[in-house]
Amino acid sequence: MQILKPEIRQSILENAENMFFMQGFLGASTRELAQKVGISYSNLYRYFDNKNDLFEAVVDSYYTHFLIKLNRFLEHEEQNQNGGHSRALVETFINLIQLDRQKFIILLEGSRGTRYEQLRLEMVERIEERIQFSLPKNHLVDKTVTHILAAHFLDGIIEIARSVSDAGLQRTRLETLVVYHLAGVEALAKG
Fold first, then answer.
1. Angle between helix 51-74 and 119-134 (nearest 10)
2. Residue-range domains of the chain with CATH
3. pTM (whole model) above 0.85
4. Using CA atoms, how far apart are residues 109 and 40, in angstroms rounded to an integer?
5. Is pLDDT larger for residue 4 or for residue 52?
6. Helices 84-99 and 167-190, packing angle to 10 deg
7. Alpha carbons 72 and 81: distance in angstroms, whole number
């Protein structure tokens, strides 16, 4: 029986993360991964049961942190800290991006075909709920409009994460996006 080597497992994880980042789960090839790591295709499956198992090994601990941080914000546990809603919103997403920018993008853009693929839609729905919650109770806004606003807001956050690796520039762009988004929601509330 061949002994599994921790350094090979680590190399598999690192290379898989890069492939998932560049190609998404569905586009990543386990044959290509084995070749990059320098092991046989069959040996790859001695370390991970299947491609889904490998994907989970790459993102699962980040995913857990992601959910905790996001739920804390959405449940208003952080909103009343210095600076109010917009500051808490910026800090939440900056922290998630800076913790692991690559995994942030993998989860929100590259997880189609995995058990995580609904995360993006769930986030859009949660943002929609926040928009609806912030509107006056008697103010009706078409659900399609709030869905579009929420989806575009999330797309903006993902684009900032994807296109900017500098933490200061991420923060500046995210602050601008949040101001723009919140101004739009406020305009809806007045409308």
1. 10
2. 59-190 (1.10.357)
3. yes
4. 29
5. 52
6. 140
7. 13
